[in-house]
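Methods — Computational structure assignment.
A single polypeptide chain was analysed. Its primary sequence is given first, followed by the predicted tertiary structure written as structure tokens.
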Amino acid sequence: MSYEQVSAAADFIRAKYSREIKVAVVLGSGLGAFAEELQDAISIPFSEIPNFARSTVEGHSGKLVIGSVEGIPVAVQQGRFHYYEGNEIQKVVLPVRTFGLLGIKTLILTNAAGSVRTSLKPGTLMLIRDHLNLMGVNPLRGENDARFGVRFPDMTEIYSRRLQEIASVEAGKISEERFRAGAEKTLRPLLRRGIYAGLAGPSYETPAEIRMLSLLGADAVGMSTVPEAIAARHQGMKVLGISCITNFAAGMMGDVIKHEEVLQTGEKVREIFSELLRRIIPKVV
């Protein structure tokens, strides 16, 4: 994907929305409802944006919604392009590349993920502190265009520690408020922290693969996020990653894994997930 192709997408979006966008959010499977909460929003189907692909997965609406949260201009990618859909890896990261050329400095990546730990139960939100790239691809492979970033970008802090702390503080406030209001019987962390393993998919992992991931130190597994985080850091963006744990991974509980389960869990956490994003966004600009 050339710089000129990404520029065409950025120019198209800029013509539709004149304000300077401060934050971009990518919504994972079943988490798209947050986009409907933006104020003074415009909605652009991916099919209208030059060089964007179409999302073919249930739970991904395939729209870019731009509006504001507490007065902060935000671009929300309601659905993403996955590598397993047959997209080239450069196409997968095109929206993130576009966000970078729009001058956006902060990217929030969200996803639905399977738990590799019995202590990390479905319905939990996990703050990604690092990842394992097991997808077999890297969006930076090939000739480097210095207009995007340097040839060998550092990935020591691929997920911003500062943004993680902001998210943790806001999650703590929500937990305490819910406890005091009687919505929760015990005061418990809303956000857990863990390592996300990204695999190519689209088949779910085997029990043997899950045992391997556990030994490698993974806490959750999914089929997205990793390429986008790499591309964002290549362009100097700060990244925050949040996984919605939707199920236990293969072999852990003996249950058959279904995509419908992913969507149902996303719906259950919709309210608290949206509240967390609304609180985080004004703090990260």
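Note: Residues 159 and 239 are 5 Å apart (CA to CA).
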